[in-house]
Each structure stands twice: as structure tokens, then as C-alpha cells.
Amino acid sequence: MGTFEVKLEVVKGDITQQKDISAIVNAANAELQIGSGVAGAIHTAAGEGLAEECRSLAPIKTGEAVITDAYSLPNEYIIHVLGPIYGFNQPEVKFLGHCYEHALALAEKHNIESIAFPAISTGAFGYPFEEATEIALKTVQNFLSKARSLKLIRFVLFSDEDFKHYEEKLPSIT
Ligand code: ADP
């Protein structure tokens, strides 16, 4: 692979604590409302204005991405994507790929320089972690040569085990 202008990072942590990142990605639900996991953490940290703005954008479809303000979060934007429910929204591979693709395209459209992704669909939506990682990394890899505004793409993993898996796999795409 050639050298790209985009820096890729893997960190262990909380998606709501990415202070140096312009846009964080929410693993949302179709109604774009507070839920469990990532969506719960983001809505709680962002405050009520987020739920209100989201009402006018919902519902969204599987694989779709929409952008909002980040309210009380330390970021400029939140990009909300609806991941596939494993075993239900098929083909899952296509829908999960679309989440990453559409989030990246929306970031470019808004001239965003940095974005942080959680591991979409791997919590409540039941996507096997290793398969989801492969799709996430492959989709980001395919995007790299098209990047214009984006200079930093960060993957934020919640557990040690998930972090280690990403750390192990990231070099395969760089
Ligand atoms: P989905 O419904 O798309 O599966 P979840 O929010 O349930 O989304 O989980 C997606 C992934 O995010 C899981 O791997 C989960 O461990 C992780 N996660 C949960 N809370 C956070 C958080 N605050 N920051 C980053 N990752 C998180």
C-alpha cells in the first residue's frame, strides 16, 4: 500500500471523551433517540437539544448517516448511523459497510478533518466482533485514497479485548 495523508488510530476509551475530534459517530437507533450503549452515552453527554434536533431527522434507514450539532459534547458534530441488526437486516456486510462509507462521505461533505468511530453494531445489535472489525477496516481502507478534508480517523474501543483486536488488525490496512 502507498502512504496516505490520513492518520489512523486505535484507542481504548469512551466515544464521548474524544476532545480533539471534530465529529464522533453514534451507533444510533432508527428513531435517533437515547438508547443503551453508545447512543445512551452520547445523548446523556450531549444534553436535551440533541434529542430535539434528532426528532426532525428521524427515522433513518439501516446503513444511512445523518449529521447534527454536538451540543454539550466537546466535538463539533455527531454523525448518526444505523447499523444492521445481525441476523435481521441482511445482507449485514453491505449495511455495515454503508455505515462507515456514508459517515465518511458526510464528514467530507462538511469539510471535517477528524472523525471517531465506535464499533458499530457490535453491542446490542449482535454483530460478531471480528467480522465487524474486518468490514470496518476494509471500508475505511477503500476510502483512504478518496480522502480530502479528513486527516484523522480514530477507532474507539470500549474493552481491552476489543482494543487489542483492533490494534492487531489495523496494520493490515496501513
Ligand atoms: P449497536 O446497537 O450498534 O450494537 P451499541 O452501542 O450497543 O451499538 O454497541 C456498539 C459498541 O460500542 C459495542 O462494542 C460496545 O461495547 C461499545 N460501546 C458501548 N458504550 C460505548 C462508549 N461510551 N464509547 C465507546 N464504545 C462504546
Characterize the structure shown.
Pfam families: Macro (PF01661). InterPro entries: Macro_dom, Macro_dom-like. This is O-acetyl-ADP-ribose deacetylase (Regulator of RNase III), contains Macro domain. It comes from Marivirga sericea. There is one protein chain. By secondary structure, the chain is α/β, with parallel strands linked by helices. The chain has a single domain, classed as 3-Layer(aba) Sandwich (Leucine Aminopeptidase, subunit E, domain 1). The protein is 36% helix and 18% strand. It contains 5 helices and 6 strands; from the N terminus they run E-E-H-H-E-E-H-E-H-E-H. Strands 1-6-5-2-4-3 form a 6-stranded mixed sheet, with helices on both faces. Strand 5, helix 4 and strand 6 form a beta-alpha-beta unit. The longest helix is centred in the middle third of the chain and has 18 residues. It is globular. It starts with 6 loop residues before the first strand and ends in a 5-residue tail after the last helix. The mean pLDDT is 96.
CATH A-level architecture: 3-Layer(aba) Sandwich
Distance between the termini: 7 Å
CATH topology: Leucine Aminopeptidase, subunit E, domain 1
The CATH homologous superfamily is termed: Leucine Aminopeptidase, subunit E, domain 1
What's the helix count?
5
Point out poorly predicted stretches.
Answer: none
With strands numbered from the N-terminus, the spatial order across the biggest sheet is 1-6-5-2-4-3
Strand content: 15-25%
Radius of gyration: 15 Å
Name the hetero compounds present.
Answer: adenosine-5'-diphosphate
Classification by helices and strands: alpha/beta
Helical fraction:
25-40%
